[in-house]
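Bench notes, afternoon.
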Amino acid sequence: MKRLVTSLLTLLASGGLLAATTAIPSLSLDQPPRPATPPAEAGPVVPAQVERWRQEAEALEHGDSGLRDPVRAAQLYCRAARHGDALAQYNLAWMLTNGRGIERDDAQAAHLFAAAAEQGLEQAQNMAKTLGTPLGEPPACLRAPPPELPAPPQAKAAQPARAVPLPIPPNAPEPIVRFVKLVAPDYQLAPELVLAVMATESNFNPLAESPKNAQGLMQLIPDTATRFKVKNLRDPAQNIHGGMAYLRWLMAYFQGDVQLVLAAYNAGERAVERYRGVPPYAETQSYVRRILARLNWTLRLPYDAKITAPSAMLARGS
């Protein structure tokens, strides 16, 4: 049999058969499939749906219901992964790096392990150390979906930036509102943006402190405080000034794109640039959605272009 196959391949290569054929596909006894990236979802996606995608994928990966379908499992993991599900990111990376029913792809796996690791998943952190720094662009399964806009008219991106009046959080203390309205124009910021960030960050508690050591009304970490010359994070006025200075810088860096500014305030501008948009972190995606909803889904606001040069990411297209 082996001699027959060898003779057939030799004959094909020499042009003895099918001389008019311009290309002969390679023969393979085992060619694992490469699943196509599923299209973006239409409309809002709630966390419970993301969890269902991951659970269904786990059942299909392992054949828990008597049906094993690794291609479908990978596609469902992909859906959940781009919505920030760390376990889905890890499981899809594991399938890719081990070729579990789909084509092996260590480059994509490295990005997926890194995303899950950045969300604190311990087993992903161990794998990320093994594979090293991801190379190339993150895969499509880590590209966040577009913002889940409500129906027009306020969802129209082409509207003027302030066409719809921006609301002030109803629980914002009056002294803080007055202070922000007084100071925000000095930073060329909409007071409503500052108050919406503050409401989400600290719920207007000047003593708030996160497990990551973010402090005060604007939840500044010490490195950011130093960067914007805040000497006393516990001082409410200094904390607000520091948060506004950071927001002003981000607004210039991302050229008034509110979605990117909010993602960077939560996850850092480098994470936004690495993923060319909102990072695939569940916390960050939820954070951006909550504040955009507070701002009536306003996607662009004026900014001071003199503060800093724009991100190189914008020049090559996000």
